[in-house]
Structures are given as structure tokens and as C-alpha cells.
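REQUEST FORM: STRUCTURE PREDICTION
Request ID: SP-0412
Submitted by: Lab K.M.
Chain count: 1
Length (residues): 327
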Amino acid sequence: MCRFWRTGVTSWERWVTIAAAVVVLLGAAQTAQAVVAVTADPVTGMNSGNATLFTADPYVEPVTAFAARGLAGDRRLRQTFKNPTTFNVGEIIISFDVTSAPETGMAIRFYEVNDVVAGSWAAAGEPFKQIVVTDPLPTSNMYLSFALTGSDVFALPARGTAGDSLGYGIEISTAFSNTTDGNTGLFNRVNAPETDLYPDGRAYRESGGAESLFRDHGVSLIASTEVPCDPGDVNCMGGVTLDDLAIIAAHFRQNGPRDDGDLSGNGFIDFDDFDEWKQNYTGPPPGAGALSFLSVPEPASAVLLVGGVVGLAALGRRRRAASDAVN
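STATUS: Completed
RESULT:
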């Protein structure tokens, strides 16, 4: 019987083995799969009483759907909002019509913003959460629901009070914002020329400028009772370990969910996921330069580099053996 780990294997040797496994998977074929469960026209709707946070429901009187804007190519539509209470997000519902099931999926990104009523879109840094669906979207007439479970659930801390302008921004686009993406569908909007239909927030056009007439795309966030995983903890077992790195290595350069190692939430396991794991890993380092292969762009170069790392590991073992013999 062949065993993957042998008795007495060092942390350095284990690290090198995982590194080698990653290199083998560098050229692996990508497989498309949805990061979350997407359903069309959920019964809960938008402001149905169970929404923890919502902007506007364009289908409920006295508000009615007034206009629509298509989502296509690199067009990104955005809204800002304040969140008065910390909660774990378990479902995202948006007002969206999909008249047919196109090949293009959808991406939903969450940012921190420092001014929720700014005249132009200005996110504070990179998105802290991304939900990316690469599969075709289901046909819908009013809403799309993105249900999050397990490791996809994320915490949304309270941000923004009556005395400041802090809050969040949500950005929605096609899955990878390619200029060649077709029209995924249409956002239904409401006509609110005087004010937005939710406090302390506004909608922004794809140009980044604030909406003037058609203000709100319906967005609803529903809380989950599940507890989010720690940052960097792929398997949600508590703590960030080499087991989490092994999961990332096993699915490297493939599309997949958080359970497969997608820590960044972009639907793809890549170097960004390794970086988040590394930033949260607190165990003892296996040796200098052990993560240097992550910066190699080409598989062939990575093979050569990891070969060198394996050689250094062998040299280190010989040096330790010689030192033990002297002592």
C-alpha cells in the first residue's frame, strides 16, 4: 500500500510536496461551476419582512418598475448603502429580468466606501467579498436570488451612523466583465427624482456618475444563522493550516467555490487565494523561499523552480545529517 505521507516527514518536505503538486496542476483544465445557488423569482421578494437590509422593491406599490438598464460587457452598475447592524449575509436578491438563459454569468462585489452620497463612485480599496457565477443564469421575470451556504456566508459589519458618511457599495457586472459579454438581462429600476428610496445611499451609472432620475435597483440582503469561516480557512475547521493549502493546491487554476479554495470569491482558484491563505497562516514557516514559486507565471518555469526548491530541501537534509554526525 502506498502512503502519501511517511513517518517522520518534516514540515519542509511536506511543503515541498504540496508545492510540487501545485505545479502538476498548473496546466489543469478549468471546469465551470456556480459559486452559489441561483434561483429565479424567489417567493421572498425584496422587502418581504425577512430582509435584514434592502434598498427598494421596484415592484411594490406605491413604487413601480419604471425603467431598466441592461447588464452587458464591462458595464458595472453600483449602489451605496449604510448598514446599521452587523449580520451574516446568507442570501442576496436583486431585481433583474433574464428573458433567456445567456452564456454570461454574473458577479456581485462588495466594497467599503467612505461617502455613501458622493457625486461619483469611489470605493475604498479592493472588494472584500465577491460572488461570481459563471454558469448561465436562470430565466427570471422579476428577481434573482443568490443563496449562500457554508463557506460562502460572509459577515457584514455595522458601518455608517447618523453622524458620518461611511458605508458600503455593491457592484454588479457580468461574470468577468469582458467587453465581448452579451447582454445578461435587465435591471428594473424605480423613478425617484427627488431622493433615493432608502436612507444614506445612492445609485451610480456605469460611468461612475450618480444617477439623476432613475435611482434605485432593488437589492435585498437576508441574514443567515450560519457562522462565516475565518479568513484563510478553506475547510472551515477552525484555524488556517497546511490542510487548507493542500485544498487550494488540489484545485489550482480551476473554477470553483470557497470549499475548493476560492478565498477571494472570484470563482477561480489562483495566486490571490494563496496570498490570503499566507496572510492568515500563523504556523511555523517551513523554510526561506518556500512560497517563491507562487510568483512564477509560466508552468514550465514553475517546474524548474520547484525542482530547485526540492534540491535545496535535499541539500538541507544532508547538511542536517552531517551536523548530527559531527555532534
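NOTES: Residues 1-9, 16-34, 298-324 have pLDDT under 50 and may be disordered.
Reviewed by: T.R.
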